[in-house]
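Ticket #4471: structure output looks truncated?

Reporter: J.K.
Steps to reproduce: submitted the chain below (115 residues) through the standard prediction queue, then opened the result file.
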Amino acid sequence: MAGEHRARADQSARRINAASELLTSGCDMAEAIRQLARRHRISERQARRYVEQARESGPVALPSAKIVFTVKLPIDLVRRVRQQARRSGQTISAVVALALSEFLERLGLGSRDGR
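Returned output as attached by the reporter:
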């Protein structure tokens, strides 16, 4: 349908957490769906998905914000990163973020959560 788009990861997490709060406050599924749809201006079908996910997994962590970070790397290194991304089923960004996080932790330059 025209005008439809996927929710950003942070929007999804906020909606799942709101659904989880509704469920833990005593709302039944149908009422949680109606309230979530109204509060977030989404369809009841979309709200149902968030409520079901909240019921199965409970609250979720909010993903951290991301920015574009451009670097020049040797061709062979880029090939290996792409190969690892394909092999692991992850995005190139996820592979690079994990590698950099682990490298910086080994140097004692902070933890993975940005502190």
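Triage note (M.O.): checked the attachment and the full token line is present. Residues 2 and 43 are 15 Å apart (CA to CA).
Status: closed, working as intended.
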